[in-house]
Design goal:
- The protein has 732 residues and is an alpha/beta fold.
- Helices cover 38% and strands 18% of the residues.
- It contains 24 helices and 18 strands.
- The strands form two sheets. The chain has a nine-stranded mixed beta sheet, with helices on both faces. A nine-stranded mixed beta sheet has the order 10-11-12-14-13-15-16-17-18, with helices on both faces.
- Helix 19 (604-614) links the parallel strand 15 and strand 16 (618-624).
- Helix 2 crosses helix 17 (551-562).
- Residues 11-23 have low confidence and may be disordered.
């Protein structure tokens, strides 16, 4: 644990690259794209592809909505979305008892602030402040206050002041700490409390990514907590359950909208500057599902509050345009959906708070209270604290989002058992193959033309020649590649298709498994699947560790999340690119007829494994420095592996060892496997994870063809070379 804490504090990255080649060999540029325009176009390819594909879906949606000609039709459309909420936000099971308790109070002349702790999921504790007005007739409207991205959560000054303003106008207010904020930090040094992942957005992203693998989202976690907060609010005798509102700003603004969308008990919404990176990322995509979710709010009154100097007006009007069609379709008056522009930037200062007061007053029959904010007497964050030291994990032994995900994963699927009859093994594997194909959304037309290929030049090096090529996997997707041919070696040996999440080599001096293999005498076809290498929209050298929010990384993650709107996943698309590479190799005269072996590094090992599982032309596969199980990621509190996550609810259907079982009885090797922190994984642990594929290989009479290999002395390339040589010697 100490080593992992040191890693997280230092921000160091683990490198799996082999050492650079020695000697004075001239450095050759191996990049396929040589002009700045070509390079920029390649880096923009993935984003442009998703924009074009999703625009088609928007056009189809617009056409569908245009055909809704009655309030009943619009309500049916809303119900269609409501029935898909677990698919969009995630499945959080049955509601558990709240086990709510007040652990302290602050008694003030006009109100009481109660310190509330409740569980939204078993042993998953939420901290909140409940503001109860004094000297008011029962019962009063209740308001859920959803906090934006402030480290102090409910105790952040501007949010606390908003709650004070509301309680002074007679509202019973519940202000909730979001996960990763306030007293609900999930990633910190146990002894000192020092954050290992910064609070707010960074913690949200860090929890959100692996949550996808079990079918949960950050938006789902926050929405579920909000719903459970309303469950508590309506139990209070001071609260009129028919008059429940929600107010929030920024990330809390979008949560105010989402909470209203999913919970019909909320009758009025006031959202200031609504938006949040992971609050607006859903298991079925980003913008399209958001438009459908916001459509659930109609016809309830909803106010957008926007600072003129925030520069956000147009973006929020776009959200309102999505919603407006529902309001009008349901016959609601236009005044139920409004925007107010006020002075200021993106914050929740008094000019934004007062429109929220006025909006709630209007719809809850409290106009006499007025919208002007009275004088406030704020408390300190320490006074508002519910736990002893400010950490639910430490003080209450609370579950975390990660531990809940791990427990949920445990119940998603039973361990596989080998059939008693050997002939039934293939039937079981056929079922797994079809289930995996459906889960990742892999489409493989039986009739496929050979990919178009453009020659981009040849490099004549001292030890090899490199053909620079560009393959068209599908319209709009071009894959830069290198065909590396040794000047000495086995001209009839297997062709090695090399795949790496770091991309193919950029120059001849680079530390690269592909270059090491060609220098060992192997023919190597190194290809950048979409989103890798020269087509990676990120500058990987400038990426922050995953423990820190990074705008570049989020743009990539947004592309991966958007794939689900298309009924597929980025994994399926990248697998398809590998299979299209096999199509091209099979049609090339000097390569056709030779065995093809896939070797993937890092996440490239998953692409290689999936392609081999779905294409029998691959004679074998080796995964080098790859995490061999999604469970390793979900079960680990911390992770450093990148981009493994974006298959929603993958673990309900398969784990990576299941793909290995689909490769059998062809040769497969885990070479230097790693855990979620990219640290060496013990062979015994890898063997345990691969119990099912080991049984399959045994049942098919080829137990020796599944290997777990560790490099001891030398480099990973030497281990891969030895494995390839063993294939040649065995005739495979």
């Amino acid at each position: 644990m100490r080593n992992r804490i040191n890693y997280l504090l230092s921000g160091c990255l683990v490198s799996l690259l082999v050492p650079a080649a020695s000697g004075a060999e001239p450095v050759d540029d191996l990049r396929v794209y040589q002009t700045s325009d070509d390079r920029q176009q390649a880096r923009s390819m993935l984003v442009n592809y998703f924009q074009e594909k999703t625009q088609v879906l928007w056009d189809e949606r617009d056409k569908e909505l245009a055909g809704l000609d009655s309030p009943e039709a619009w309500r049916a459309r809303q119900q269609q979305t409501r029935s898909r909420l677990p698919e969009i936000l995630g499945d959080f099971g049955e509601k558990c008892p709240l086990d709510a308790r007040i652990v302290g109070t602050l008694d003030r002349p006009d109100y009481v602030i109660e310190k509330l702790i409740f569980q939204s999921q078993p042993n998953y504790y939420c901290t909140a402040n409940v503001y109860v007005p004094k000297n008011r007739p029962l019962s009063q409207p209740g308001v859920l206050f959803t906090c934006g991205h402030a480290a102090d959560g409910k105790a952040a000054t501007l949010y606390h002041e908003a709650c004070l303003g509301l309680v002074l106008k007679g509202y019973v207010v519940l202000a909730l700490d979001p996960t990763g904020q306030g007293e609900r930090s999930e990633y910190f040094e146990p002894e000192t409390g020092k954050p290992l992942v910064p609070l707010c957005v960074s913690q949200h992203h860090y929890l959100a990514r692996p949550s996808w693998l079990v079918g949960r989202s950050l938006a789902g976690y926050r929405t579920w907590d909000a719903t459970r907060a309303v469950d508590y609010l309506v139990t209070r005798p001071e609260v009129d359950p028919e008059r429940i509102g929600v107010v929030g700003n920024s990330g809390g603004g979008i949560m105010a909208l989402l909470a209203t969308a999913v919970d019909p008990r909320i009758k009025v919404c006031a959202a200031a500057h609504p938006g949040g990176s992971m609050e607006e990322t859903y298991l079925t995509g980003r913008e399209l599902p958001k438009a459908d979710l916001l459509g659930l709010i109609a016809p309830r009154p909803c106010l957008f509050i926007v600072g003129r100097e925030s520069g956000e007006e147009s973006g929020h009007r776009r959200k309102m345009d999505w919603m407006r069609s529902y309001y009008r379709g349901l016959g609601a008056e236009d005044d139920r959906l409004q925007m107010v522009l006020v002075d200021g930037v993106h914050d929740m200062k008094q000019p934004k708070r007062e429109p929220a007061y006025g909006w709630l007053n209007r719809w809850f029959g409290k106009e006499v209270e007025g919208s002007q904010e009275p004088p406030l007497s704020p408390e300190t964050p320490e006074q508002l604290r519910c736990t002893a030291t400010g950490y639910t994990l430490r003080d209450l032994k609370s579950e975390s989002g990660q531990s809940l995900n791990a427990a949920w994963a445990e119940g998603l699927r039973r361990p596989r058992q080998l059939p008693e009859k050997p002939q039934a093994i293939d039937e079981v594997r056929a079922g797994i193959r079809e289930a995996v194909r459906a889960r990742i959304g892999l489409g493989l037309p039986e009739q496929r033309a050979v990919p178009a290929c453009v020659a981009r030049g040849v490099v004549d090096g001292e030890a090899f020649t490199a053909e620079k090529l560009e393959l068209e996997s599908e319209p709009g997707i071009r894959l830069p590649a290198l065909l590396l041919k040794p000047k000495q070696g086995n001209a009839r040996g297997p062709v090695v298709v090399h795949l790496s999440d770091e991309g193919k080599p950029a120059d001849s001096a680079q530390s690269s498994l592909a270059l090491e293999l060609v220098r060992h005498g192997h023919w190597v076809f190194s290809v950048d699947v979409r989103g890798a290498g020269e087509t990676d929209p990120r500058d990987r050298a400038k990426l922050s560790p995953l423990t820190r929010y990074d705008a570049q990384q989020f743009r990539f993650d947004s592309c991966a999340a958007s794939a689900t709107s298309l009924g597929t996943t980025l994994l399926a698309m990248q697998t398809f690119d590998v299979i299209r590479t096999l199509d091209w190799i099979a049609a090339r005269d000097d390569l056709a007829g030779r065995p093809v072996v896939l070797v993937g590094e890092g996440l490239g090992g998953v692409w290689a494994l999936a392609a081999t599982a779905f294409d029998s032309r691959a004679a074998g596969v080796a995964c080098v420095g790859t995490v061999p199980s999604y469970r390793l990621i979900v079960d680990s509190q911390y992770y450093a592996c990148r981009d493994y996550f974006w298959v929603p609810r993958a673990l309900a259907t398969f784990d990576l060892p299941d793909l290995v079982s689909l490769v059998a009885p062809r040769p497969m090797a885990w070479i230097d496997p790693v855990d979620a922190m990219l640290e060496t994984l013990e062979p015994e642990r890898c063997e345990t994870l691969c119990r099912w594929p080991r049984d399959v290989y045994q049942g098919l009479g080829s137990p020796q063809k599944l290997q777990i290999m560790q490099t001891t002395g030398g480099t990973a390339s030497r281990t891969v070379d030895q494995w390839l040589s063993s294939l040649v010697q065995s005739g495979r």
